[in-house]
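not sure who needs this but someone in the group chat was asking about Small ribosomal subunit protein bS16 from Aromatoleum aromaticum so here u go. i didnt clean anything up, its just raw.
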Amino acid sequence: MVVIRLARGGAKKRPFYNIVAADSRNRRDGRFIERVGFYNPMAAESEKGLVVNAERLEYWKQHGAQLSPTVLRLAKQAAKAAA
């Protein structure tokens, strides 16, 4: 099953997350199918903190991908900011 979830990157105490479509059997930070966006909780005022490719997210949802609870919350947040 395909899951859209966060894959952690960045340094210690400086998290950075890629929003990825991955097989549910793969590790959190392991192999993924496609990068759909990113989330930077430590972003400065001048930087983008959340970017989501809504077209690709919708594509994966139509093909049966499940969104993790955090990605669902972030997708709603990104849609609200875009509107």
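also The mean pLDDT is 94. if thats useful
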